[in-house]
């Protein structure tokens, strides 16, 4: 029999995957849509690359949430399908996997599902495309192979058949024996996966996923309140284990544990045990990069390209201040924090606190003592709290007195590019300290935990956690590889970034590409496939998408219609990049586009190297 | 309130944990029994160490599977409890956590549970000990806090109260509000843990745990047979993703994937696609260590200490043969495989095949091509298959013709120590290639997959997979850190080992400690706490346990009464150790004792360094 492999089975970019499949002797591949979307190769180029490698393209997958929907959704879904049929025609693949819907819009109506799948098959038939319908084991209404087979029979169209995936079949209790009786020719595709029999019950949950108070979702102040109401006066004792703590540095874990209890007691004890309240924060005052002779010049060029001006020079240290509106970047050539040679690092950032003294007292009470900055007489007092990843968090006064440490350079102000403030920092966290970092920023600085996301990136699963203050003038996006980052690929590990806000990203992008600028912003190339997919996913005008495409701007929309427009620079100074964001009632971080950015960073690096 | 932490919350040995808890400012600790069992400190020493650090011992935990059992089990459980009360007296701790039973022996009878817990509390009362009864969320009959409270009320004894653990309470659907109404003084202990709300359903199972055919538990030959019976003639396509593959080298993953399909087809296709059948294997012919000027002398001394004789010297290479009965070790000073300086490595092992040529043909057909050994004219032909961890697997003939490559040294045979054969090899696998290794040994060599185990070790979770041939003359134990090994502790990472069999481990151990031997075996110290726990767990005579203790022999018993007696050497040559095993109708590998060995290796290293 012919042997195929889905591109999702192996790590890397589409190029890495095709090479690996061909070298291992596979006859064909399934193209996983996300691999295509993040690829700089057009579908035709992918087709020709596969042909060169002797690989047939056997399946395009997956097409989601199609069937059993109201008429207006059906119209949109058919339009979406036509766009994917276009891609398939260019790829030269004749079968598409349509998996059973998990959409809340889908209704439990087999007849409707069959009739809509028949319409899809009819359209597919005019283009010689076959629809392989697959019951996802967690499909909303259709989740077993026999149910999908009943619907396919009911629809009764030659271009509609089944896709059987051994995982979806064997992970459910429906007897697979009946498969042998399926009408010959109606199994369009077979996908194979093995798996251990797992009982993902409360025991596994407990063994692998306990967290210290404040790192998870339980209402522990409420729970402890009940216990205290019953007259309990013994200790509060932590009983926590998970895969990470079991192998992490015990000294660090114990401090994290202690911080969790102190923060918990602050919410349940009487005033006697109250911590100094977290003062209101008013923004990110500056971000400091540690640079050396290699990364420094590269960052200076990039800052000029972004419309920044070198406005100040520190009185006593080799430290430069660069500004544009309220965006401030400090380049520090004297930081001794260990880093790879040539790799710039976010060594510090400063938050503006309504009461810096109280911020530091709170940190101290939470086992995060402040380290006074080494300073000369007359220089501003800037104390730093050390975050779990080693970054110094300076706490500044609302009057920005730290700026008086810098002498004006007299460099004429650049025209700028409309950047307004620092929107957020993207901080890749050390693997062992991700949950510790979340608790640190929440308890020490009083930032709220907005959301935790997981997504598949080209080199492994990623987890992100966003924290912010109530008015969103301080936002941090913490990220970590869920398992670890693949070490086989020579790419950028753990990049950090600074995102600046603009009110009009199109105007900003246009300003950045103005020929007058000393060094135009090097734009990160975004694949055309991404924009084709955007057009299929969202009802956006062709003109708008063309504009996004011209400037390499990415787009995201949240459940309530809020929109994010954003663009990235390439990786600079070895480890960092900049992002420009325009938010329209949007409170997230464009995580859906992170894999596109990662693949583009890797492609750029491969093409440079 | 006082703040405590369970020792299980942080990584390392008990010493590491106590230091970390004290440094973070905790008032007290819960002693997790396994941490005590693997510690070389007596309970009194632990008590005094805690006192020095300003830590109180607030709880001893856990005591499992006590209540609602038949009378003969109750008697054994009460005896077991008395032994733990002895330990508690030495520790100076007055509260023990008794968690609700998960034993198949337990019956669903609250009255019986209450009456037996009352008996336990009565005995505890005479020693001023309190029993804190906790409902495990996955307890067999008692799994909710309100149920445990009803039983405690029914038992009605002053030395019996509740332990409440926020995880067990909040992970279940029973309303915690009623906790506030528990009789004051009856909550003996409170344990806190947070957790994310997780839905460990089939979706998570699919996203994180799919495997290539033959690596999991599904009956895929049966499944594919059904699909083929329905007339399917499309490709067999792999649709597999898990956390490891997502970040691993795609070239390696693709080869692994291809091997899985070839092996699967061998079980479903007609004779046309059959692989050369795996020939019968007759044993491990030899194990080769790559050594250098530092690790070589250390291994030679150890082999002499184990009663081996340097019997042969290779005709053309700097390679030595050491023998004792059918145990053969080869020390190779010419292997160029990358390794840390001074660290010996198992660079190769040889299996005896009934048909070496066919073994190699099968390997070749499974994308594991053989590499011919570089050899001089007249030397035996030894081809090697390269295992996923880089180890060369030589396939030898039953007549052991490879031995003719060695010239006899004429060294007089040592008296030996009763070692008979190589029982098994312990091979720590590279993180990314554990499942690949399991499939490799199963498909290429035809070894059966015996069992996969997971256990908590001092530096993180471990997973082991045992493979063997039907008559058990070839056994391999593959291990890997489930997440990764803690990098904070300067200890032995990924040790490899060779286990030799004996028919009488007591006699062997006595022979090894005979003063006549050139260099007595350095024995790995096993903690007294381990033997105290052994006495509580198994009905073994005091004499027998004293003998085990004298020689540092560990003990395990399987569900059907089979017994393992085994002992370990310290780590030698940087990365390896030896084990001596005596099996009595026992088919496992003593995994339960691995944490004891790991802690002892770390203690030894700390005390040397």
Protein architecture, described:
2 copies of one chain form a homodimer. With 609 residues, chain A is of the alpha/beta class. Helices cover 32% and strands 26% of the residues of chain A. The first copy, chain A, has 17 helices and 25 strands. In chain A, the strands form 3 sheets. In chain A, strands 14-15-16-13-9-12-11-10-17 form a 9-stranded mixed beta sheet, with helices on one face. An 8-stranded mixed beta sheet of chain A has the order 19-20-21-18-22-25-24-23, sandwiched between helices. In chain A, α4 packs antiparallel against α15, α9 crosses α10 and α15 packs antiparallel against α16. Chain A starts with a strand and ends with a helix. The mean pLDDT of chain A is 89. Chains A and B meet through β1, α1, α7, β7 and α8 of A and β1, α1, α7, β7 and α8 of B.
Keywords:
homodimer, 17 helices, 609 residues, alpha/beta, 8-stranded mixed β-sheet
Which geometry of chain A do the CA atoms define? globular
Question: So what's the oligomer here?
Answer: homodimer
Helicity level of chain A, as a percent range?
25-40%
Radius of gyration of chain A: 27 Å
Summarize the biggest pleated sheet of chain A. 9 strands, mixed
Distance between the termini of chain A: 40 Å
Hey, roughly how much beta strand do the residues of chain A contain? 25-35%
Strand order of the largest sheet of chain A: 14-15-16-13-9-12-11-10-17
Query: If you average the pLDDT of chain A, what whole number results?
Result: 89
What's the arrangement of secondary structure elements?
2 copies of one chain form a homodimer.
Chain A: E1 3-6, H1 14-23, E2 28-32, H2 33-37, H3 43-53, E3 56-63, H4 71-91, E4 95-99, H5 110-125, E5 130-134, H6 145-155, E6 160-165, H7 166-170, E7 187-192, H8 202-209, H9 220-229, E8 236-238, H10 250-268, E9 281-290, H11 295-305, E10 309-314, E11 319-324, E12 327-332, E13 345-353, H12 356-365, E14 370-372, E15 383-386, E16 392-396, E17 406-408, E18 419-428, H13 434-445, E19 448-457, E20 460-468, E21 475-481, E22 496-502, H14 505-512, H15 528-537, H16 542-551, E23 554-557, E24 563-568, E25 576-584, H17 594-608
Parallel strand pairs in A: 1-2, 2-3, 3-4, 4-5, 5-6, 6-7, 9-12, 13-16, 18-21, 22-25
Antiparallel strand pairs in A: 9-13, 10-11, 10-17, 11-12, 14-15, 15-16, 18-22, 19-20, 20-21, 23-24, 24-25
Helix pairs in contact in A: 3-4, 4-5, 4-15, 5-6, 9-10, 10-13, 15-16
